[in-house]
Design brief:
The chain is α+β, with helices and mostly antiparallel strands and 478 residues long. It has 14 helices and 18 strands. The protein is globular, with a radius of gyration of 25 Å.
Amino acid sequence: MGSRGPGTDALAELRARLVDALARSRLSKTQLAARAGLGRTTVWAAFRDGAPPPTPHTVAALAGALRLPPEELHALRRRALDEHDPGEAGAATAPSSGDTGVGPRPTARADGVEVLVEQADPVGRFLVLPSPVPMSDPPVRPPGGAIGSEDVLGWARARGAVDFSSTLLFVTMTNRSDAHLTLRSVRALVLERGEPVRGALVSIQPAGSQAVPELVFDLDEVEPELWEVDEYTRRTVGRRPYLDRTHVRLAPDESMKLIITAQVHRSCCTWRLRLAFRPDGGQEFVVRPPGRYRTSGLPVEGLAPVLAWQWHAKPPAFAPTTRDLGWCRVGEGAPQPPGPLPEGGTLPDWAAHPDVVRFLPESLDFLTTGTAGPERLRRCTAARSAAAAVETASRAVAQALRDGAADEARRVQDDLKAAFAPPLLVQAEVAMLLGHGLARGHLPAPTHDVLRSYIERTPAAAVLRPALAAVEREGGTP
């Protein structure tokens, strides 16, 4: 019998914890799938010996449904992923690295193929700084440096900045073997998924040209696939992923470069690349370049301040700005007129009140965090589901407390927290409370104070200030 490595032990422990928790819950796997919001096949695979490690989304959903600590399960999954290749057994794998920096990467080698991954710094890069920008300590030009030579990117990275919305990689593959190699797959392995990073958004716009990426990963997907996109419309090309319909083959000593953008809108992902090759007449093998990347989407609360580096100013400095990125708007200024309310679903009775309808555009802009297009529809659907759940849970908790059933009230609250991310629940509760205030013409003083504090400190909620002021005028709230 073969020995068990660290990754195998971590995966076995992860599955053992899931099995124990399932037994304690007295649920069937079908019932667990329904509670976790997962497919039955996905749940069965998470418990099956020999299957790859479950995805971060699956781990988080199972942890919530089985009331397990998600941090411990994610740590076990990461340990298993570092030692267990989620592809084929016996695959040759490039050395792994815990390095989370950026810039050029060492070349990964396996079975005669070299893979070099370089993280590009295109024009118009956006970075999220997780803490307020220290305006008293801006980037400085090196002695004797030309105008615009400030290392703004290095300055931001040193302060914990992460890519906003997308990360651009140049991937160069070189066949150093004597056989022809066929590229079988390129995958983004999401090692960890969490809420988007909150903080300031910084735009860096040096002089120069930008290469147009042609291949895209959507990191918001549970299992990101590589798609080709049109360089002008930025829409996906074809109905199948790129390598499902394109034959990529390398002759001996032949090189090929892929330009890959990994994009994300609704989460923050730590991820890495995985490439699979198969030589003619040989066994498929895997190369995992050592670089790890972190890319963040737009948090429910929004981002502020939004600053652009003015390299041409005297002296160079950050300045407030507004940016329309197509799928979202960021920065100061009144919201653009939103489109019609997405169809489907029902609104609560208080939402039909004239004073609520009057501020519906602002409420919709808040619930969708100023996004547009398909992303706006997705966020609106999620926000309405959360708002309906908050409304139902509030009634159930009130009834349970009236009946003296404190345990039942806690269970309802725990189920609500397990079903939705905390920022989404807070957003839904703010919209519900403000809607009740508009419909009734007043707010209790404690509720008013909580709402005003949230609106003042939350960038995305700034659009709600006129609605809160209307309640204050109507009800005489100070």
